[in-house]
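The freezer alarm interrupted the setup, so I double-checked each line after restarting. Inputs confirmed:
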Amino acid sequence: NAGVTQTPKFQVLKTGQSMTLQCAQDMNHEYMSWYRQDPGMGLRLIHYSVGAGITDQGEVPNGYNVSRSTTEDFPLRLLSAAPSQTSVYFCASSYSMGETQYFGPGTRLLVL
Amino acid sequence: QKEVEQDPGPLSVPEGAIVSLNCTYSNSAFQYFMWYRQYSRKGPELLMYTYSSGNKEDGRFTAQVDKSSKYISLFIRDSQPSDSATYLCAGRHTDKLIFGTGTRLQVFP
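Predicted 3D structure, all chains:
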């Protein structure tokens, strides 16, 4: 049981480039979410999904897209990277919205 | 004003000390409160989960909620160097989970 896995662990992008952060869980959780963590700002919710085919925006969704085609996977896409998106990104999952969330190890993203 | 406020620290204590970590919150709708522990370069992991006011104990850890003053605390007894981490408090109502910024704790031998 791997829990929540994220790839890559670290990525450097140039302004304007696009990329996809991968997240997968093997716990059959319905709820998955993406957070970014910045110094002095704490964890902020970007997007979340309550099940396959259903996604919704969180607190800071601009510049990010998500999709949920399977229960296991919840990728986060940066459409055109900006330096303001330099952050640590965490994916989390839980049985349902509001239940205990299990976090992945994070992806550190640097946008130059 | 942030919905959950937390002193960023760092808080440095000797091994064996009792540690008190605190948060204040402004949203009266919060029903549940959580403490997450985050080791350096790792994802947060749930430490304690409480509902309503009162205390909840789990080993060396005690979580306390005072809804009248909108104050939540985490106490760590007999602190160990392995407790060195960032501790995040969070409040939840319906589908919203709001995190504090985290307090960095250092326990030195």
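Quick read of the result. The first strand of chain A starts at residue 4 and ends at 7.
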